[in-house]
C-alpha cells in the first residue's frame, strides 16, 4: 500500500468498508467459517491489508476488554464463555502489553491529539512532553489543560515540576519545553539562519517551527520577521502588504461596473 497515493488509499479503504461490515456481522453470529472464507475470497494482499486497517478503525482503543469481548458466548472448545466483567484493561492497554509501545521513544500521536482535545487518556512522560510542545506552540496554558481535562488546579504544573526534578536527578539536560519559566538559551546565529532558510524554502509554518525548536510561535514569528536576531543572517520574511483599498475590496466582491451603478442609484 505504500506505493498508493493518499487518495488511492482512501478509495481503497472506502471500498473495503462493506467487506468489513459483512465480516463484523458474520463473526458476531450471523455466519460461520465458510461464510467468512467466501467474504474474503478474491481479495488480493493489498485489499486484505486495507481491510485489516478498516476493521481496526472500527474498534475504539479506549474501550474496556470486558465490553469489547462481551459478545463472545462460547470458547474454542464450544463451552459457554462468561465475559470477565471485572476486566478493566482497555484495548490500548493490551496492545501496549504486547509490545506496541515497547520502544521507550515511542510517542502515540493519536493519544497526544486526543489529550489536547480533552479526552482522558493515559500518557507516558514522552507523550506528555509532546502535549506540552503542542500546547506551547498553540499558546495553550497549563491551567487551560487542567480545564480541558477536568483536573484539579495545578495538576499539569505539578507534573511539569516532577519531570524537571527527574531530569535534574538523572543529570540530563531539560527538554526545551520544560524550560518555560526559566531563561531559555538564546539561538545561535547558525540556528537563526537555519530556521529562516527552512521557512523560505516553503512547506513549513511558524507553528511547525515553534514545535520543532521548542519555542513559542510568537518568538519564531519575531525571528522570521527580523524583529529579533535581525543581524544574525538568513532570509528575513517580507512584511505583509497594506490592507487593500476599498475599491479593491469592492471589486473583489463583484460590485463593479453595472452592479456598482445599480447600488449607487438605489442609494440616491
Explained architecture:
The structure is a single chain. The protein has 268 residues and is an all-alpha fold. Helices cover 56% and strands 0% of the residues. It has 14 helices and no strands. It has helices at 6-30, 33-40, 45-57, 65-68, 91-97, 109-117, 125-138, 142-149, 155-169, 189-200, 206-213, 217-225, 246-252, 257-267. The longest helix has 25 residues, at 6-30. The protein is extended. Mean pLDDT is 78; it is low at 248-259.
- Provide the β-strand percentage band: under 5%
Unreliable stretches (pLDDT < 50, length at least 5) are 248-259
Using only CA atoms, what is the Rg?
27 Å
| Oligomer kind | single chain
Q: Encode the helix/strand succession as letters.
A: HHHHHHHHHHHHHH
- Number of E-state strands: 0
Protein structure class: mainly alpha
Amino- and carboxy-terminal Cα gap: 65 Å
Q: What is the strand and helix layout of this fold?
A:
Layout: H1 6-30, H2 33-40, H3 45-57, H4 65-68, H5 91-97, H6 109-117, H7 125-138, H8 142-149, H9 155-169, H10 189-200, H11 206-213, H12 217-225, H13 246-252, H14 257-267
Helix pairs in contact: 1-2, 1-3, 6-7, 7-11, 11-12
Characteristic key phrases:
268 residues, mainly alpha
What is shown here, in short?
The chain has 268 residues and is mainly alpha-helical.
